[in-house]
Amino acid sequence: MGLLDRLEVVSRERRLKVARAVLYLAQGTFGECDSEVDVLHWSRYNCFLLYQMGTFSAFLELLHMEIDNSQACSSALRKPAISIADSTELRVLLSVMYLLVENIRLERETDSCRWRTARETFRTELSFSMHNEEPFALLLFSMVTKFCSGLAPHFPIKKVLLLLWKVVMFTLGGFEHLQVLKVQKRAELGLPPLAEDSIQVVKSMRAASPPSYTLDLGESQLAPPPSKLRGRRGSRRQLLTKQDSLDIYNERDLFKTEEPATEEEEESAGDGERTLDGELDLLEQDPLVPPPPSQASLSAERVAFPKGLPWAPKVRQKDIEHFLEMSRNKFIGFTLGQDTDTLVGLPRPIHESVKTLKQHKYISIADVQIKNEEDLEKCPMSLGEEVVPETPCEILYQGMLYSLPQYMIALLKILLAAAPTSKAKTDSINILADVLPEEMPITVLQSMKLGIDVNRHKEIIVKSISALLLLLLKHFKLNHIYQFEYVSQHLVFANCIPLILKFFNQNILSYITAKNSISVLDYPCCTIQDLPELTTESLEAGDNNQFCWRNLFSCINLLRLLNKLTKWKHSRTMMLVVFKSAPILKRALKVKQAMLQLYVLKLLKIQTKYLGRQWRKSNMKTMSAIYQKVRHRMNDDWAYGNDIDARPWDFQAEECTLRTNIEAFNSRRYDKPQDSEFSPVDNCLQSVLGQRLDLPEDFHYSYELWLEREVFSQPICWEELLQNH
């Protein structure tokens, strides 16, 4: 309580000293602990205690003061090089808030009732507007846009993004909570339960060996000379054995590289790089080549295959209608529109087919929401006004709605600057303001340490942005499909698809096995043990981990994000084809991790029909992997390209229709008319200005914030005003 009282002093230095003391408490009073377990225990205990004493609210006020500190902004703008010293106060405040959010967010069975209550209170406090202020996530989003616009280059953007991700995860819920919400929502809408839990299915999947490119192309394109026809049976047996090797689970080496790509693969990859970014360096096409496995080792490595396919097949209503339309045209000569029950005149096998399709029919929550939206657009008077529940997700969307394009552009700008394939350009934003020291390193050891720190810094930024975007998309999709489509469309317009492909246009194996961390400097290890003397040899050796979980997590998130943006969108699938994503994605299959492989195969599956017969012929092992691991759509002609959707229709019209539907949804739900169009208009200036307006009781709390946002920050075009009047 004494520390909190002293946070309100006028002196900035004294406030910083007290904030550091609170940070020491939040970090677990490590000076009095003997082990890492003790530090983590007291960090958690102290964070609950600090929250119950009102520390978060006090630090929120200080954060507002620092954000509005024009002196710090102007001094940072004048400096030729910004360093870690320019953001000291902000970093201390954000660190305390991060520790509070992260420690309180994590649930444990041993938590007392008081702690559980505190957790729910804190979640509510972060989710909803308190004292007419915006939710905390929106404040952090405004910090991101302010940083990207160049008005506040000293903001510690890594800490801001990490805190923003954790706040969204705490207030809206993580992936497992999303699955629970999805089950509940389907039950509310009267839809049948899900056939399986996707998280559990992916967990039980096992990685396949990556495809070897040379054998695929060589066997399919080179015909044997007549003199060798006698040995053809043997070579065919060898081909089949190699074909099976895709499905052989090799547990000994997690990241076994395969043979190098062929010339054709290299050429197409080069085209893709030039299409994505002319300045990208060519990838190293010469990974370490292991000796080819012998037949004995192949049979020794073989493991029993899982029985059946991992996913239950799905069929959309649209697929059944399309199948019946084709059948009726073929056998009867006319169609019955959307009628899927009348089967008169159709042969018996068609009856059986329709029955099977209906057994696997899947109605998504999105289908129901789109249908409801169409009904509300058609009959606004008879159906009345829609009742929208005030969930944390709905409140966040309402707050983000009008600035959402700026938020998405800002996040993608930072992601581009943090991507390992990005070149340092003069006009790009400086994301290293909170990692570069005041004095640049002068020894080799200091330079190595700073290099590792910079790479780690970038990896954490990529991790937090990828997880944040994926969480937002998944929650908005569950809340309302058009909220999801609105965010997706702005991501696509901001070039998110080529940006993610550019990210993967590197040696992904090297990225996932990167060792950009110094274990002895990690918290809480560094607070307990005496730090050993760092040497260039110890830094080069790195830690003992075989791969970097952080980078693997980022890669999977970005692939899932790409899947979300392109699923059922033919115009965006064509973008994948145009940017020559197939060789880039195929290289990512070298990583032997089941979840990453699944999302790569999904992205390859949706564009297979556009890649041509030669590509399919040359990549049969990849096609087999798609068949084995990706969910089947009963009459989806993905492997042959005969589908009506594969024809080059006007894909621009698809995006325009979607945009019209999104604008109609946002206008109907969020643009509330002030008065009825039939009410008389008061044109008298004195009577209009003399009207009394009923303001909320707590309006005076946020009056200055309202003035800044609604009046001072809005540009006024005086010339246009004079022309109109």
UniProtKB/TrEMBL annotation:
Composition skew (Acidic residues), residue ranges: 260-270
Any GO BP: cytoskeleton organization
Residue segments, region Disordered: 212-236, 251-273
InterPro entries found in the cross-reference section: Far11/STRP, Far11/STRP_C, Far11/STRP_N
Source organism superkingdom: Eukaryota
Occurrences of domain Far11/STRP C-terminal (ranges): 347-703
Family statement: Belongs to the STRIP family.
Name recorded for this polypeptide: Striatin-interacting protein 2 isoform X6
Protein's organism: Zalophus californianus
Gene name, Swiss-Prot/TrEMBL: STRIP2
